[in-house]
Amino acid sequence: MPTRQPRRAPGTRDGRFAVLDPATGEAFDEAPDQRPDELDAVVARAHKAWRGWRADPVARTSALLAAADAVDAAGADLAPLLTREQGKPLAESYAEISRTTARLRYFAESVPGPQPITDGRPVRSEIRWRSLGPVAGIVPWNFPLQLASAKFAPALAAGNTMLLKPSPFTPLATRLLVSVVSDALPADVLTIVTGREPLGAHLASHPGIRHVTFTGSVTTGRAVARGAAASLARVTLELGGNDAAILLEDVDPERIADRLFWAAFRNCGQVCMAVKRVYAPARLCSQVVEALAQRAKTTVVGAGLEPGSQLGPVNNAPQLARVERCTAQALADGARAVTGGRRLDRPGYFFAPTILADVPHDSPVVTEEQFGPVLPVLPYRNIDEAVEAANGTGFGLGGSVWGTDLDRAEAVADRLECGTAWINHHAELSLAQPFAGIKESGVGVAGGPWGLYGNLRPFVVHRPEEERP
After folding, report:
1. CA distances (Å), 297 to each of 54, 261, 293, 314, 348, in order?
2. Beta strands in 38-187 (DSSP E)
3. How far apart are CA 39 and CA 83, in angstroms?
4. Residue 4's closest CA among 172, 222, 167?
5. Which residue from 79, 186, 303, 432 has the fewest beta carbons nearer than 10 Å?
6. In 3D, which of 200, 155, 147, 156 has the Cα closest to residue 435?
7. Which of 172, 160, 170, 175 is nearest to 211 (CA)?
8. Which of 83, 85, 151 is nearest to 309 (CA)?
9. Residue 2: pLDDT band by 50, 70, 90 thresholds?
10. Do 210 and 236 meet the contact criterion of CB atoms below 8 Å apart?
């Protein structure tokens, strides 16, 4: 585990910054506040390490499998630290660690081989896949370890080296993760840099970085793309979502309520592909609202380290303020908080799980990504209206359709403008599938072989079938 320094007051002193516990709002540790001018040396070391790392795919596989075993063994240290800085219940932190090791193992075995090209010419042509060089991974605070591994596992498996920058809200567990993983790797193959802006902007625009993979807001994603454009670096951007769930006329509200509720409220609603809007047939809308409200009222809200907590705090003060603003605006627009609708009167960044009814369709809680424990339920008169509303935002990450007639549900799902559509569930991904959004939800593809090949470039070799005189 990284060496801990004596606790100081919030802020920066001696090149460090405070890390807060969202369950209390108080500082409990610190992390290095690295300067942008330190990046040149770090990138240079990553470039030097790349020369050896790219050359031996068998050694890469072995090292990444050893790294996965090491992360498994470190779970009892990682999980409480992740919960302390992120806020999620401890069981969810352990689940995040399991997903991290699973991804390492998946990509460790994903070694791209040469691909022949058959085009009828008397020439033997072959695609050989080559790595890019040093890659930058910039990670948000909602799933720090899972999303870090989503960036470094395919990048390293492809033969690249990586500089990883976590959110300044959640740097500690990621530092420990990188320490554990790096013990199984050659020096400087995976490096972590921590700090506040403009560190991330400088990393994205550094001329020695050949690929920038970023998860976060649309605004920051645009800035990352502009920075990477200066050196023509490749970008992969996952920029969030405003996923809609459409309930069909044949749905049983009580039967689906648990699945639908947790598809919206897991990790305190701080999931890019969470359900953030529900469209229900007008005749069923009140039943849906009541079923979801009942779950919200009985959910145990508390610090993630407290036994029995099902929903933790919002991660940070700026995000809590955003959730409060979106909810207050919805109520001012005429919405009704069936349950919740307010910050809880306790230390930390707790917001009551909130179900909103009678919400105007143009309210920001519908049109924007609220990214918190708030869910609007909206009625529709016919399925065309529901599909149009679901597709009517600038986002296009995911969506879902719920009903008992699976053929009809699939037909409706096929009309959704998004990267992934689920039927009767939501936000469940396989490591083997592509994950991508459209519109403002992102650029590029993560996951599965698509995520691996996004970290590679094709190199084509042509040779004649026989020597010419």
Report:
1. 53, 12, 6, 18, 20
2. 115-117, 123-131, 134-138, 161-165
3. 29
4. 172
5. 432
6. 147
7. 160
8. 83
9. very low
10. no
3-state secondary structure (DSSP) of residue 371: coil
Instruction: Provide the percentage of residues in the chain whose pLDDT is more than 90.
Output: 93
The pLDDT of residue 468 = 60
DSSP for 111-131 reads: ----EEE--SSSEEEEEEEEE
- Confidence label for 70 from pLDDT (cuts 50, 70 and 90): very high
For residue 174, what is the DSSP state? H
**Rounded to 5 degrees, what angle do the CA atoms 459, 464, 466 make?**
145
Show Cβ contacts of residue 100 under 8 Å, excluding neighbours closer than 6 positions. 71, 145, 146, 148, 149, 177
Residues 6 or more apart from 466 whose CB is under 8 A from it? 122
Residue 238 bears catalytic tag: yes
Instruction: Out of 238, 254, 369, 466, pick the active-site residue.
Output: 238
Q: Is the pTM of this model over 0.90?
A: yes
d(CA 409, CA 402): 7
Question: For the chain, what's the residue count?
Answer: 469
Yes or no: say if 139 and 145 are a contact pair by the CB < 8 Å rule. Answer: no
pLDDT at 7 over 60: no
Q: How high is the mean pLDDT of the chain?
A: 95
Residue 25: Cβ within 10 Å count: 16
Least reliable range by pLDDT among 8-12, 222-226, 227-231, 234-238: 8-12
State residue 467's pLDDT score: 67
Evaluate if residue 14 carries a pLDDT over 90.
no
